User: Which sequence fits this backbone?
């Protein structure tokens, strides 16, 4: 709660619209340093569920990259940039297609620059799944994933009951249902809109919306096939996993077994940090995120 309630920083961003292979578009936002070296590293940031380039943790990461003279770029997942997309589809936790397209764009435009990526929450799941899917062919120099839901079914069970459902899930459902309502104006009947607007849990929403749009049988099939945990053993690029043991979204039992990780995948699982927070500094005046700083430090260490 610290980030959304207390971080109010704004960063000047340059928006670019990129056409996708399926005839739609994604919006990316650039944070350019004042005097960027043509060979300066490029860091792609992937935000979490219902986030955007304006999410507090994204701004924090971009400030860290700017401070080193690097280029930062954020992929706003479809429907998250402030403008509805053209097609009758949304993003989801296992959809790596847009990330793959943007990474290819970055590599082709900046052949002289090392390219790395940081994913947070849902964005971290997408990043890790993509790294596992591509294996040796992944062209990123390094990657960091923060507060990742490695097992989507386990995380959904936590979020769909008790206090988390009342506080966190209700907020996510409010914006997700609003997007369904808006999409139905241009694509009537693209899902069972009435049922979607009545959804109050992730299982209900993913059964009604995410599964049929994504080609899954139901919510459980979506969660099982989209979770990044099974893909970790296939990652072949230097990767750091950062999760807190007190994350209210991610139960500790769902975290990966360190003995099962490949040697290029490191993990740092501190006792405290919450979800995408990891507060350090002097409260409330000089507070920052250790995970954001650590992510950029790890990338810098892979570039030497």
Assistant:
């Amino acid at each position: 709660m610290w980030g959304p309630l207390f971080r109010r920083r704004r960063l000047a961003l340059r928006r670019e619209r990129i056409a996708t292979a399926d005839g739609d578009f994604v919006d990316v936002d650039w944070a350019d340093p004042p005097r960027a070296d043509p060979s300066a590293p490029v860091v792609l940031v992937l935000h979490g569920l219902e986030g955007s380039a304006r999410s507090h943790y994204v701004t924090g990461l971009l400030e860290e990259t700017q401070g080193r003279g690097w280029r930062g770029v954020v992929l706003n997942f479809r429907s998250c940039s402030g403008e509805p997309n053209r097609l009758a589809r949304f993003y989801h936790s296992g959809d790596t297609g847009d990330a793959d397209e943007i990474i290819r764009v970055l590599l082709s435009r900046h052949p002289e620059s090392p390219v790395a990526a940081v994913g947070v929450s849902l964005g971290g799941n997408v990043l890790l799944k993509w790294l596992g899917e591509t294996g040796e062919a992944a062209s990123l120099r390094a990657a960091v994933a923060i507060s990742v839901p490695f097992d989507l079914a386990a995380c959904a069970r936590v979020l769909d009951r008790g206090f988390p459902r009342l506080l966190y899930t209700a907020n996510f459902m409010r914006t997700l249902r609003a997007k369904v309502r808006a999409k139905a104006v241009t694509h009537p009947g693209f899902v069972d809109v009435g049922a979607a607007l009545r959804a109050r849990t992730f299982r209900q929403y993913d059964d009604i919306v995410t599964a049929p749009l994504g080609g899954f049988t139901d919510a459980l099939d979506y969660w099982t096939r989209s979770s990044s945990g099974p893909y970790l053993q296939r990652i072949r690029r230097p990767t750091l996993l950062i999760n807190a043991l007190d994350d209210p979204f991610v139960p500790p039992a769902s975290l990966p077994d360190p003995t099962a990780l490949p040697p290029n995948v490191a993990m740092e699982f501190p006792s405290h940090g919450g979800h995408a927070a990891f507060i350090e500094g002097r409260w409330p005046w000089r507070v920052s995120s250790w995970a954001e700083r650590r992510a950029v430090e790890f990338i810098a260490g892979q570039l030497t």
Notes: DSSP finds ten helices and ten strands in the chain.
